[in-house]
Fold these 2 entries.
Entry 1:
Amino acid sequence: MSSTHPVPPHWAANALIDADGYRAKYRRSIEDSDAFWREEAQRIDWITSFDTVQDASFDERDFGIAWFTGGTLNMAANCLDRHLAERGSQVAILWEPDDPQTDARRITYAQLHRDVCRFANLLKARGVTKGDRVTIYLPMVPEAAVAMLACARIGAVHSVVFAGFSPEALAGRIEDCASDIVITADEGLRGGKRVPLKANVDAALEKASASTVIMLRHTGADVPMVEGRDIDWAEAVAGVPDDCPAEEMDAEDPLFILYTSGSTGKPKGVLHTTGGYAVWTSMTHEYVFDYQPNADGSMPVYWCAADVGWVTGHSYVVYGPLLNGATQVMFEGVPNFPDQSRFWQIVDKYDVEIFYAAPTALRALMREGDGYVTATSRKSLRLLGTVGEPINPEAWNWYYNVIGDGRCPIVDTWWQTETGGAMITPLPGATPLKPGSATLPMFGVQPALVDNDGKELEGAAEGALVIKASWPGQMRTVYGDHERFFQTYFSTFPGSYFTGDGARRDEDGYYWITGRIDDVINVSGHRMGTAEVESALVAHPSVAEAAVVGMPHEVKGQGIYAYVTPNAGVDSDGSLRAELVQWVRKEIGPIATPDVLQFAPALPKTRSGKIMRRILRKIAEGDVANLGDTSTLADPEVVEHLVAGRPAS
Ligand code: 6R9
């Protein structure tokens, strides 16, 4: 068992919250929850103050989730306007380009405010009004934050689509929320490679429809523009007034939709609202990263390396940090370009004090050896964080000892697109750390472990992770399908929110997330529904049937293992395998690339025709000695074929 790292004394003494503070505050957040949240909500500037703190029930009879009802506010005004008097000239975003030879950009709160107001006025001029959905398909450039905040300013609902998704995936998301406007760039840049974003939008709009495309010129590539539909961002904002009053929004008005993969069907539009999400992201960002002014009054330089296309980019690049008046690095590129030192060079360049990234990036860098790290100083670092997937103790120890020189606590934050912000996480001044454990619940969060019958487990135990009561940052619905929201999260264990994750709780009450227990796989910290990859595969004319499961992968955490039954008469010896891998990349995007694709004459099914995924998982893991009970199979021989046909990987 790995060792416990006590809280360093200078952290306990100087952090916003120490161990006693954590215990007292946590108890109050549960036992006197209304008073606790009424106080925490004061971190937000409300236009009208709220009447009710919370009105939430997970029960089918009176199901519903609402926080701070009666209150009104504007998210963009909270992120920008209210900082202007004191921090107008403070840098909000230190933008670091993909290519270190390109000019970096420093954007102050005053500039960001002006850019947001202008862009908001442009959106209005194009007919966007409160409640309209706006699709954002941009690389990691400051304009991504500008576009999101401009939507928030006028009450439009943004739907950011990760710039690595394919035209097909983009079209599906544009259609699902009936967004009439798409904001993109000519091209993105990642590791020196160009990503044809505008061309992808053009292809998507052959399937979905939108009347306006606003395009940022980023690389300057020569891209065709559609007359009447496409407009150039810079040209269009020139001359637009920079005065744009912020729309007064109800606490429960939608702020954004973000599509995420589930265990069934198409990705669902996770909908977050305004008031609760603002309180939650601001509070968690402040406490988890101990975000407070340095002794000299400056704000610590914070860097969350997530892309704005994922929820971590929403909550901990855009909203949380800006609500808290942070100075942060925003990085366009990848950790290994021009070489494997890039992250740490950026840390040194900007004197980054707080660094937050996914374990997959760390594992990839760890494989390249310590030389790329020790070539840099990293002396500015004080605090490290991880998110997105379980971090194995080996990677944790490398992060701690090599990146942090044994001096920086690591906050391993467990949360989800659905939860809006960190749910189970250490606080650096309060929580002794155990490598691989996300530790203890955030204020207001009541986790529990349940067995298959939904019975709550006490003490040290392992089971399905549920949350017993609402918290302000909880998603409010699946866009356009409230019934699916209830069914997905509240029907498995009635009365509780089911996370889809399994977890273990040790004798100290620490949580250890063991990973997804539904049909979702976590590839490099990105969620992928097995059903999505399967439906992409069966859409190919040569495929009769497909089943996809996760497999252990040294760098990605989990890889994608696809079993494919070709149509009768199809030759699966030739180029079909490569063709199918390409096909999935095109249908969904490179993150869905199958790592192993095995042709299977048939799939193992029960007599009622259900695919036995448990067996497929075991074969994918290479654990063929423990296939378990196969007696319910319609045709046990199928399994022997699969075991024999397993490709060497
Ligand atoms: C924020 C984010 C959510 C899923 C979640 C879980 C996994 C996230 C984790 C973690 C272990 C952590 N996950 N953080 N597992 N330890 N610290 O990643 O959201 O993309 O919705 O993924 O990621 O399985 O259920 P999202």
Note: The radius of gyration is 24 Å.
Entry 2:
Amino acid sequence: TEEDLESIKLRTNLKDGKLTGIGKNKNLIVLQVEALQNFVIDLNYNNQEITPNLNRLMNDKSSVYYDKYYQLIGRGNTSDAEFVSHNSLHPSLEEPSYTKYENNTFYGLPWLLRDQGYTVWAMHGYKKEFWNREKAYVSQGFQRFISEEDYKFEKTIGFGIRDEDFFKQNIEYLKELDSIDNNPFYAFIITLTSHSPFNIPEEYQMLKIKPEHEGTILGNYLQSIHYADKEIGKFIEDLKNEGLYKDTVIAIYGDHFAIQSGDNEVDNMMTELLGHKYDYDSMMNIPLIIHVPGEEIQETISTVGSPMDFYPTILNIMGYKNEKGLMLGRDLTNYEGKNYVFPQTYLLKGSFISEDTMFVMARDGLFDHSKAYDLNTREEIDKNKFRSMYDKIIEEINNSDFILKKNLLKYYIENNGEVDLETLTETEILKD
Ligand code: GP9
């Protein structure tokens, strides 16, 4: 409705606040790390750090760490994490968003930074057709996609290119990108090695795994993400050595879970490791770290959020306004209200996670069969208190679907923010 659109417009119009503009005119590197869950951050495992480099980065005076950040993906897994992070819209639940909305008009982070004079490239060492990235990246606003065929490598791990080969060559690509027209750049970099099922060859296994975790998904994952962390550490060092660090904002986040909750044996093992119940909320918890060299900003921000909130959050730091498009998320650094995350895969549509509650929609879609939990006590609580929240969530997801299905941004941008909703052609009837 017109009213919904007005409220989304208001939300898109970010207010200045903490950290506003500290990244202005700087380069931006966003590193999306395959299957990086939050529980490994700062974890002491068998007297070892799993992610020493990310820990150091997170604890640095120039970093902000968002510790209540949850995945938000649809059918397109990793590619939906990209889609949601860049566009602040919900992913499609019918098909991967990059396929379904390949030809839509967008005004996400890549486009906005281009309008600010940035050169915008994406780098990922896998096949360019996978997840329809090559085609979708055009409408997403990327000017160049460096994909598997652009990297030289002989050895592979699991899915393909090793992070070490990937990062090393990215340094060269970044130098090239940095030299273009004296403009700042935005590089979106997606890693691959820490992909499930995480069984990396022995020569890369550097951790001492407890006997009871040997050969389990947990043991394998720890080795794999430890390897990824090591390569991320080297990459940051290389950025420093090559003069690419000082003027660059670096954001790092995980795309989605590694260890799926729901299996008793796995849940028990994880619960024992973490000292608290491993459930969908801890499974979906991914880290977000934003690092702005030279700034003293160290803080852990515990506002609940998701990739939906990435675009407004990074925009505030970069100091630009979204004057053309629409964003459904919040600037997590400055938002003072209670925020909610609406995962729609693994938890069904209508479910939510807030700072104190996890509401789990029933498989049969009936509100009466749904369950609500207090996240502090893990006790089941009265779900009926959340009926109106549930209705709001459905409405918000449907609004996002409407924007995508009607290609609303096309008309919105063409008409400078004015659009007559009634004239939008009928495409499909939206279902709950
Ligand atoms: C492949 C990589 C993995 O390009 O992004 O995707 P996933 O299987 O995690 O969705």
Note: The mean pLDDT is 94.
